[in-house]
Task: inverse folding
C-alpha cells in the first residue's frame, strides 16, 4: 500500500540542480545559470542588432528613419497578431487560422461598410462601424475556437486547421473568387488609419506599441497572465490549483481573435480590398515571431517583448533582401526559414 | 545458479543531497530477503543501482565476488538481476509475448519470429501460473495478471536475482497467496529474491532474513525468525512510534462542517456518505484502487459524479470544479505531487500564491506582497531552502510537499483534503507535517487525510473511514483504530 516515489522525485529534482557533485558551492552555478538565461533572452535582440549592422553595411538606405518606420509599419500586422499568439502558445495552445481569419474579417468589414455607406452615406460613423465589426468578429471567432477546444475537447491544432480552411473558403465565396473592394469614398475616408501618422510615426506602429505594452502588462502583472503561464506549464496542476482552466483558455483565443481584428482594421485601409490571398501565411509568420522571440512551442513561459522583436527581425530580413541584390527576393521565405531554425537551435535545451 | 550480492560502502548523491551513506551488506544466494525501511530510507535507490537504473556516486557492489557497475538495466539483466517496478513497465497495446520479448526480440533473418516468441512466452506464463494466451493484449489484463507478466518477463531473461518493489500493493488476498506460492517456487529453483514491502505480516511470512535501512544507511541484517513485527517497525523508524505524532486533542462536539450523502463517482465510488466536524481529522483508509482519491476528485468536480449531496456548514452546494470548491472553502492536495500538485518549473512564490492569486491582484499583481507571503510560509511550514528565487524543482521532496501543502492552505479553507500528505517524505518532514495538521484543526478547520500508511492514520486521526471497492465499508472510532481492524475492513476479511 504505501508507495515510495521519493527516490525518483529527488532524482528529477537533481536534473535541474546546477551542481552535480557534492562540495561545490551552489550559489555560483546558480548565478551562472541566471546569466546564461539572460543571454538566452537577449538572443533575438542580438540577432536583430547583427542583421541591422549587416543591412547598414550592405545598403546606406537601410539605416534611415524612413526605412525604419517603413519596416515597423509593415511589421504591425504580424506583430499585433503575434502578441495574441504569444498568449495562446504560452497557454499550451496553437492557432493556425489567423491568416484566414484576417482575410474573412477584412471581407466582412468591407461588405458591412459598403452596405452601410450605401444606406447612410460615407461618414466617419461607417468607418467606426467597420472597425467595430472587425473587433467583434475577431472576438467571436476566438470564442468559437475556445469553446470547441475546451468544451468540445478537440485539439487546438485540429480545430484551427479546420477553421483555416473554413474562413478562407467563405471569403472566396463572398468575393466570388475575386476581390471585395471598399467604395472609393469610404476608402479615402478610411485610409488615414493606415497611412496617417502621429508625431511622425505611422498609426499602425503606435497601435503595435500599445498592443505590445498592454500584452506585456497582462502577461506579467495580472492574475490572468499568471494563470496562462500556469496552464501552459502544467494544465493538470493548474486545474487542481483551482484555476478555471477552460475560461482562461477561451479568453486566450478571444484575445488572439481581438488582435487579429485590430490587425485587420489596420490592414483594410491599406489596400481597400480583400481577396483569397489576403493574410496568406500570416499564421506561420506570427507563430515564427513567437518562437524566434524565445517562447517555447510547448508553452509555460514566454515573452511579449521577445515576440515583438521576433516579428521585427523577420520583416527586417525581407527588407534587407528588397534593398540589396546579393540574395534573390524569391529566397525571402528561405532566409526566414533558416533564421527560424538557427534561432531555435541556439535556444534548444533551455528548458 | 544462485547469485550473491555484496554492497561495499555504496554512496549516492542526487545533486548536493546524499541519499545513500556508505551502505555495506551482503545478500546470501538463494534466499528471500525482506528489505525494510520507511519511505525515503533509500531502498528504492539502492535497488535501482543494483539493477542498472542508477549508478553509485561512490563505492559499489560485487556479484558473486566480481565488482560490477551497471550503467543500464540491460547490463544488469545480462548478469541476471531484474527489478520489477511498482509501476509496471509494460506497453499496454502490445501483446503479452511482445512485451516479454520487448528489446530482445527473436528473429528469423530480417523478420520477427512470432511463432517462437509466442511458444516461449507460453512456457514462462505456465511457469508463473498465468492462464492467458501470449497474444492477449496487456491492456486487457487486470493488475495482478500484469504483475505475473512482469515476473514472466524476468524469468524469460534468466533472472537469478529478482527485486520486487511492493508487489502486493495492488493485489487482492487471493492474488497475494498465488504470488507467495510463486515466490516459494522460484526460491526452490534457486532464484534469489529481494522483497520490498511495508506489510510486515507478509515480510514475516515469506522472507528468510530482513535487511533494515533508515535515512539512507544500512541498519541491520537479521534472520526473520528472530524478529517480531514490532521489532521490525521500531528498527525501521529508529524510535518509539508515538514520538512521531502530536498528542490527539479531543474533537470538539460541533455540528458537521462537511456532510456528504449518497455520493457516487461512476466506476469508482458508490453511494458514499460521511461527515466531518470542525476541529476533526477524518482518515480515509483502503487499498489502492478502492476509490478514495477518485471519490474526492469527484467531490471537487475533477471527475464526473452522479447523484449525492454535498453540504458545507449545513448549506447544500454544487461544486462544478476546484474553483467552486475553493470559493466554498474546500481545497484538495493531490497525491500526485509532480503531475497535479506543484508546478515544478515555476518559482516558489508563483507556486505558493496560485490558488488565491486574486488576493495579490487588485488588479495588478504585487510581487512584493507575494514575496512577503512566501517568507511567511517558509517560516510557518518550515520549508528549508537557501534561495527564495529558485524553482520548485530545486527543493527536496519533503520541502516540495510542504510547499504544496502551503499552497492548498493559502486560501484558508474550512475543509482541507490531504491525499497521501507524507508520500515520498522523510521522517523529519513527516513529523513536521503531522504537527502542522494538528495546528490546523486547533483553529477549527476540518482535515481529511487519505493515506495508505495505516500507522499514520492511527496516529493522527480521530476517526477513520475505510473504503473497499468503491464502498465505504466502515467508519472506525478512535478506540477501534488498530492495523488489524483497518486491514480487515479494507480487504473485506471481516
Result:
Amino acid at each position: 500500500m504505501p508507495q515510495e516515489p521519493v527516490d525518483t522525485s529527488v532524482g528529477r529534482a537533481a536534473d535541474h540542480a546546477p551542481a552535480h557533485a557534492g562540495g561545490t558551492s551552489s550559489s555560483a552555478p546558480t548565478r551562472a545559470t541566471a546569466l546564461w538565461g539572460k543571454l538566452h533572452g537577449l538572443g533575438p535582440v542580438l540577432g536583430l542588432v547583427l542583421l541591422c549592422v549587416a543591412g547598414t553595411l550592405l545598403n546606406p538606405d537601410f539605416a534611415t528613419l524612413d526605412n525604419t518606420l517603413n519596416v515597423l509599419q509593415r511589421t504591425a500586422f504580424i506583430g499585433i497578431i503575434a502578441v495574441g499568439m504569444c498568449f495562446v502558445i504560452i497557454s499550451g495552445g496553437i492557432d493556425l487560422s489567423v491568416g484566414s481569419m484576417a482575410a474573412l474579417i477584412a471581407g466582412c468589414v468591407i461588405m458591412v461598410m459598403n452596405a452601410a455607406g450605401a444606406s447612410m452615406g460615407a461618414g466617419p460613423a461607417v468607418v467606426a462601424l467597420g472597425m467595430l465589426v472587425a473587433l467583434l468578429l475577431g472576438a467571436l471567432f476566438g470564442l468559437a475556437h475556445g469553446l470547441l477546444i475546451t468544451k468540445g475537447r478537440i485539439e487546438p491544432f485540429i480545430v484551427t486547421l479546420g477553421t483555416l480552411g473554413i474562413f478562407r473558403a467563405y471569403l472566396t465565396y463572398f468575393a466570388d473568387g475575386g476581390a471585395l473592394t471598399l467604395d472609393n469614398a469610404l476608402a479615402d475616408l478610411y485610409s488615414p488609419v493606415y497611412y496617417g501618422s502621429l508625431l511622425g510615426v505611422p498609426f499602425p506602429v503606435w497601435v503595435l506599441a500599445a498592443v505590445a505594452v498592454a500584452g506585456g502588462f497582462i502577461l506579467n502583472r495580472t492574475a490572468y497572465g499568471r494563470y496562462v503561464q500556469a496552464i501552459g506549464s502544467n494544465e493538470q496542476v493548474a486545474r487542481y490549483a483551482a484555476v478555471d482552466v477552460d475560461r482562461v483558455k477561451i479568453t486566450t483565443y478571444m484575445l488572439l481573435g481581438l488582435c487579429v481584428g485590430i490587425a485587420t482594421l489596420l490592414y483594410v485601409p491599406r489596400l481597400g480590398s480583400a481577396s483569397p490571398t489576403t493574410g496568406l501565411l500570416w499564421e506561420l509568420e506570427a507563430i515564427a515571431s513567437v518562437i524566434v522571440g524565445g517562447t517555447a512551442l510547448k508553452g509555460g513561459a514566454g515573452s511579449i517583448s521577445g515576440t515583438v522583436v521576433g516579428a521585427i527581425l523577420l520583416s527586417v530580413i525581407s527588407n534587407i533582401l528588397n534593398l540589396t541584390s546579393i540574395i534573390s527576393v524569391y529566397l525571402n521565405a528561405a532566409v526566414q526559414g533558416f533564421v527560424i531554425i538557427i534561432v531555435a537551435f541556439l535556444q534548444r535545451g533551455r528548458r | 545458479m544462485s547469485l550473491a550480492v555484496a554492497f561495499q560502502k555504496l554512496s549516492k548523491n542526487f545533486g548536493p543531497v546524499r541519499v545513500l551513506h556508505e551502505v555495506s551488506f551482503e545478500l546470501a544466494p538463494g534466499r528471500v530477503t525482506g528489505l525494510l525501511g520507511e519511505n525515503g530510507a533509500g531502498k528504492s535507490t539502492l535497488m535501482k543501482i543494483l539493477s542498472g537504473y542508477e549508478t553509485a556516486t561512490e563505492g559499489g557492489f560485487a556479484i558473486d565476488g566480481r565488482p560490477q557497475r551497471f550503467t543500464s538495466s540491460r547490463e544488469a539483466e545480462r548478469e541476471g538481476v531484474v527489478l520489477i517496478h511498482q509501476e509496471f513497465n509494460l506497453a499496454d497495446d502490445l501483446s503479452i509475448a511482445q512485451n516479454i520479448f520487448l528489446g530482445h526480440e527473436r528473429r528469423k533473418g530480417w523478420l520477427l519470429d512470432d511463432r517462437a516468441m509466442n511458444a516461449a512466452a507460453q512456457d514462462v506464463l505456465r511457469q508463473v501460473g498465468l492462464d492467458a494466451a501470449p497474444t492477449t493484449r496487456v491492456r486487457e489484463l487486470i493488475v495482478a495478471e500484469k504483475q505475473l507478466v512482469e515476473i514472466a518477463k524476468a524469468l524469460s531473461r534468466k533472472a537469478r536475482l529478482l527485486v520486487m518493489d511492493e508487489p502486493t500493493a495492488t493485489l487482492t488476498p487471493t492474488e497475494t497467496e498465488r504470488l507467495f506460492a510463486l515466490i516459494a517456487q522460484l526460491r526452490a529453483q534457486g532464484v534469489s529474491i529481494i522483497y520490498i514491502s511495508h506489510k510486515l505480516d507478509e515480510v514475516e511470512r515469506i522472507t528468510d532474513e530482513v535487511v533494515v535501512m533508515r535515512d539512507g544507511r544500512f541498519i541491520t541484517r537479521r534472520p526473520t525468525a528472530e524478529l517480531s513485527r514490532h521489532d521490525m517497525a521500531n528498527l525501521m523508524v529508529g524510535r518509539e512510534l508515538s514520538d512521531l505524532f502530536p498528542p490527539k486533542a479531543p474533537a470538539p462536539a460541533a455540528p458537521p462542517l462537511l456532510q456528504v450523502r449518497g455520493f457516487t463517482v461512476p466506476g469508482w465510488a458508490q453511494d458514499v456518505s460521511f461527515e466531518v466536524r470542525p476541529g476533526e481529522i477524518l482518515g480515509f483508509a483502503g487499498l489502492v484502487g478502492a476509490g478514495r482519491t477518485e471519490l474526492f476528485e469527484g467531490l471537487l468536480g475533477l471527475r464526473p459524479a452522479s447523484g449525492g449531496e454535498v453540504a458545507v456548514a449545513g448549506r447544500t452546494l454544487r461544486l462544478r470544479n476546484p474553483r467552486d470548491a475553493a470559493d466554498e472553502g474546500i481545497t484538495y492536495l493531490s497525491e500526485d505531487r509532480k503531475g497535479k500538485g506543484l508546478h515544478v518549473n515555476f518559482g516558489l512564490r508563483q507556486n505558493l500564491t496560485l490558488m488565491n492569486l486574486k488576493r495579490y491582484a487588485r488588479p495588478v499583481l504585487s510581487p512584493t506582497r507575494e514575496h512577503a507571503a512566501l517568507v511567511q510560509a517558509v517560516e510557518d511550514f518550515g520549508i528549508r531552502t537557501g534561495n527564495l528565487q529558485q524553482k520548485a524543482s530545486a527543493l527536496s521532496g519533503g520541502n516540495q510537499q510542504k510547499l504544496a501543502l502551503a499552497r492548498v492552505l493559502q486560501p484558508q479553507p474550512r475543509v482541507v483534503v490531504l491525499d497521501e500528505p507524507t508520500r515520498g517524505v522523510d521522517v523529519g518532514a513527516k513529523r513536521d507535517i503531522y504537527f502542522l495538521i494538528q495546528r490546523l484543526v486547533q483553529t477549527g478547520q476540518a482535515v481529511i487525510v487519505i493515506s495508505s500508511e495505516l500507522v499514520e492514520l492511527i496516529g493522527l486521526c480521530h476517526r477513520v473511514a475505510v473504503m473497499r471497492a468503491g464502498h465505504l465499508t466502515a467508519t472506525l472510532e478512535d478506540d477501534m483504530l488498530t492495523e488489524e481492524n483497518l486491514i480487515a475492513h479494507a480487504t473485506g476479511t471481516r
